[in-house]
Design goal:
The complex is a heterodimer of chains A (463) and B (455). Chain A is built from eleven helices and 25 strands. By secondary structure, chain A is of the alpha+beta class. Chain A is globular. Chain A starts with a helix and ends in a 5-residue tail after the last strand. Classes of the chains: A alpha+beta (463), B alpha+beta (455).
């Protein structure tokens, strides 16, 4: 495919970028002993972007022939020409970057795509059956296996020329418990980039047992008291924190639009214990679910320090934002599928591990909560964040106690990170299942160590 | 897209069904969609990129020995391989007696919903319209905060022209074409360099003559919300009433409720409304209807993902649960006919979804709803809701505290409670409803006894 893309760009004037992107999705879902879905979806095509008179034009086509690609190039150029007169702030010449040249296949591809449909189906059937038998108080159990196999070739007129393949398997177990008409749901999931061992390292049956136990325990759980509280966050919650509270705020397009991180490079925005990074690699631990070797502009995806020892030191860039803000492209341009334009997205976002044990962190809490089990989250331009937590256990005088339910965490990202006073040595990626939304979905991961800080809990107020 | 594409898609779907039967399927269904999409994207207060896409997607669902398989591709030339893949998936799946495809049902005639002038809109016209709307939004000012400004993170003006066809070995054979233009805007207000909470809004139309007015209305609403979020200060903690504006009702309540009223959720044991038809689940006056083939004056494609006729379905009437939404699989399990609510497209199996929803108006003015000793106006809710339990908790964004006759913007304020209990505590609905994207109509709501926590 690289040869075809190169041939299509021969004689093209100005900047052009061709991205062949093939995605095959596999989905197996079993609920209550019944196979709800077993599907295979394939979508592939060429995404085209050109710059004409400082204006972007794009087009996409599923016709991956030389004629089809050249038609798409013509469409993109025509689109740019038609609108160049309306663009006030022309796109400057794109900066050079660490372009990827060659092949960058990721591990685990052959392990996953060689597995039979029967193997995938029986794995999910067995897992759901295990969950269903784990308690007599269940109204529903569901197990899902999802898999994305991606192939890309990216060639630009100014130096990128690469291809790669990767695979991302995910596993979910969801349990709903019932008592006296009340329902409570809990889930466990894992998502990785790599072979099946990445997800089986988490022991799917143990995941199922934990989901069932949490769902049943939540039936008896009271509500958390709303208000400011000291908390110890598990790696999955730390992942949500770094993704929602900081990550979106430092995406350079959002910075340029006026996010709370704008104009704050060099400021102390967190406790000096905090070093926060976004990386295309699976740092500290294998299998991170947002791993990419190359971004969708053909730029090698390295490690970017965003916060170092509490100080804001960088943003996440594509080539255009980098040249506008006097920075280096960081390899954060990503597109969900071939028909999507690349925009700035996170990859694997984390806080560097520290030097404490988890017990030491808990021991230092007089009254607070131990938080685990991420739910959805959302960021804001103000750096105010929100995310949900499935399980919160009260901590009293350093001892973990009873479970409470339905907690939402919120606060100002920089203020919360400023209260971090303990970080564990243990590190885990724990947000690789599901996806991030920003106009397009995207596979990312996040995580880190356990961490102690203060946040506002949205709980119940008494009358 | 050309006129008369529907017969071509029917022919393609028919070939796919034949291929699946030849590959060994007992029953087969093929769904084809062909679309042309044109969009002009704006970012950071300027035009960003203009793009187009044409694509045909084919999905084949097969039943083999009561086993289900599904495969889809955007390369219909590979339909033989696709059919074989679907059958192979079915062979690897456990059987279920209820697996099967529906028999055809009469579908009301509906001509193409494709205004010729709309389908012909090109990039320059969309870019010009978008630029005018952008200039309008950036030029707006707030009477409360004259120094406040709006900044756009992203804005998009788009035209989608789609045709779809569904053919099955049981005799289903339907095709239809429709086109719409839409606009969406996302951004925030900024005051003295400090951003407020982000806001978003948008709309869609089928008549190009209505496009500018519809987007002008939606984008001004966006600006109102963005300005409203500026100068926010800390709220107060209490239990009391909240008012949910019409454009927030879907996110806060209706979206979760409809999910719990889908027959698959009921069967799977995740819906709290199983076995409760005929029981009160909401306050008197709460009437929610799924509009079938379209809300008044806004017709939709008359058939669902399975080619079944879309049927108007009353879900809740005067607070009493009336029924659930069904596709053919869940209907077969329940011993009834589908209500025509199989959603999705060529890239997925059918799943139950509403096509259009209408929540009945009440008899209060907005002023009456907002007449509170102490209450919150929930402009936008950013939180999590567990649809099984109904527990919800989240942050009020761009919202207001009403207290002692004064109204001020608040920040870092969360609301929490149980949604299904809250439905019984709806104390008022506005007399006026608003229509969103031609498929959702809702009034504003007032709900009593909600927990409010301020930072």
């Amino acid at each position: 495919m690289r040869d075809l893309l190169r041939e299509a760009l021969q004689g093209v004037a100005g900047f052009a970028e061709l991205r062949w992107h093939a995605k095959t999705f596999c989905n197996v879902e079993v609920q209550g002993g019944r196979l709800e879905a077993s599907t295979m979806r394939h979508r592939d095509g060429i995404g085209v972007r050109v710059l004409h008179d400082g204006t972007w034009g794009s087009a996409s086509t599923s016709d991956a022939t030389l004629a089809g690609i050249r038609r798409a190039l013509d469409d993109a150029r025509a689109a740019a020409r038609a609108t160049a007169g309306l663009r006030r702030d022309k796109v400057p010449a794109l900066p050079s970057a660490r372009f990827a040249v060659g092949s960058f296949d990721q591990p685990g591809v052959q392990d996953v795509i060689a597995r039979s449909i029967e193997e995938r189906v029986s794995m999910v059937v067995d897992l759901e059956a295990h969950a269903r038998k784990a308690s007599t108080q269940l109204s529903s159990t569901r197990a899902l296996y999802r898999e994305i196999f991606e192939e890309k070739a990216i060639v630009t007129t100014d130096g990128a020329d690469c291809q790669f393949r990767l695979v991302r398997p995910e596993l979910y177990v969801i349990a709903t418990a019932v008592r006296d008409g009340q329902l409570q749901t809990a889930s466990e999931s894992v998502g990785a980039t790599g072979g099946w061992q990445c997800i089986f390292d988490r022991n799917p049956q143990a995941m199922a047992d934990k989901a069932v136990k949490n769902a049943v325990d939540l039936l008896s759980a009271g509500a958390a008291a709303g208000g400011w509280s000291q908390v110890v966050m598990s790696p999955s919650i730390v992942g949500l924190l770094v993704h929602e509270a900081i990550g979106h705020t430092v995406e350079a397009d959002f910075v340029q639009a006026g996010s709370a991180a704008k104009g704050r490079l060099g400021d102390m925005v967190a406790s000096e214990l905090v070093t926060l990074c976004d990386s295309g690699s699976s740092d500290h631990h294998d299998g991170a679910g947002g791993t990419i070797p190359v971004d969708d502009e053909g730029v090698l995806a390295g490690r970017t320090e965003v916060i170092k020892d509490g100080r804001l030191v960088g943003y996440l860039h594509n080539r255009e934002s980098a040249v506008r803000m006097g920075a280096t492209p960081t390899g954060n341009a990503r597109a969900w599928e071939y028909a999507d334009d690349p925009i700035i997205r996170m990859r694997n976002t984390y806080i560097e591990p520290g030097d404490k044990t988890v017990d030491e962190l808990i021991d230092g809490v007089q009254y607070g909560y131990l938080l685990d089990g991420p739910k959805n989250g959302q960021a804001d331009a103000t750096a105010e964040f929100m995310f949900g937590v499935t399980t919160a256990r009260r901590i009293r005088k350093g001892k973990v106690g009873e479970l409470v339910k339905g907690v939402t965490l919120t606060g100002n990202a920089f203020a919360v990170l400023g209260t971090v006073d303990g970080i564990s040595r243990e590190f885990r990626w724990d947000l690789g299942s599901g996806h991030c939304g920003k106009g397009q979905p995207m596979k990312v991961d996040a995580g880190g160590p356990y961490l102690r800080c203060r946040v506002m809990l949205g709980g119940a107020q008494s009358a | 897209m050309h006129d008369g594409i529907e017969p071509e898609l029917l022919a393609l779907a028919g070939r796919a069904v034949d291929a699946a039967l030849a590959a060994g399927a007992d029953q087969a269904e093929a769904y084809v969609s062909a679309g042309r999409h044109l969009k002009v994207a704006f970012a950071k207060n300027d035009i960003d990129t203009v793009g187009s896409n044409r694509e045909t997607t084919l999905g084949i669902r097969v039943i083999k020995d009561h086993r289900l398989g599904f495969a889809t591709t955007n390369n219909p030339a590979t339909l033989d391989h696709l059919a074989q893949s679907a059958v192979a998936i079915a062979k690897a799946s456990p059987p279920d007696q209820h697996n099967g495809l529906p028999q055809p049902q009469p579908v009301p005639q509906q001509g193409p919903l494709c205004h010729p002038d709309l389908a012909a809109l090109g990039p320059q016209q969309l870019a010009t319209l978008g630029s005018e709307l952008l200039a309008m939004v950036l030029g707006l000012r707030s009477a409360r905060l004259p120094d406040g400004r709006i900044t756009i993170d992203t804005m998009e003006i788009a035209v989608q022209d789609d045709a779809r066809a569904v053919v099955s070995s049981t005799g289903v054979r339907q095709a239809h074409r429709s086109a719409a233009a839409s606009g969406d805007i996302f951004g925030m207000g900024i005051l003295d360099g400090v951003p407020g909470s982000f806001s978003y809004d948008g709309d869609a139309v089928r008549d190009p003559d209505q496009l500018q007015a519809a987007l002008d209305r939606a984008f001004r609403r966006f600006a109102d919300k963005s300005f409203g979020a500026l100068g926010a200060t800390a709220g107060v903690s209490f239990r009391g009433p909240i008012v949910i504006p019409a454009d927030a009702v879907s996110d806060v309540l209706i979206g979760h409720l409809v999910g719990a009223l889908s027959a698959d959720s009921v069967r799977q044991g995740t819906s709290p409304f199983a076995g409760r038809i005929g029981q009160r689940i909401a306050a008197p006056g709460f009437t929610l209807v799924e509009g079938g083939a379209g809300l008044d004056g806004h017709p939709l494609t008359p058939f669902d993902r399975e080619g079944m006729p879309r049927q108007r379905t009353t879900l809740v009437e005067d607070g009493v649960l009336q029924g659930f939404l069904y596709d053919s699989m869940e209907a077969r399990r329940a011993g009834r006919l589908s209500t025509g609510h199989a959603g999705g497209g060529a890239a997925s199996l059918p799943s139950i979804r509403p096509a259009c929803l209408s929540l009945a108006a009440g008899d209060h003015s907005l002023t009456q709803l907002e007449d509170m000793d102490q209450g919150i106006i929930v402009t936008r809710f950013s939180g999590s809701t567990d649809a099984s339990s109904g527990d919800f908790s989240g942050v009020v964004k761009g919202g207001f505290l009403v207290q002692g006759g004064e109204r001020r913007p608040i920040m870092e304020t969360t609301i929490a409670g149980n949604l299904w209990e809250a439905m019984k505590n709806i104390s008022g609905r506005s007399a006026q409803t608003e229509l969103f994207y031609t498929t959702q109509r809702a009034p504003a709501l007032r709900v009593e006894d909600i927990s409010v926590t301020a930072g």
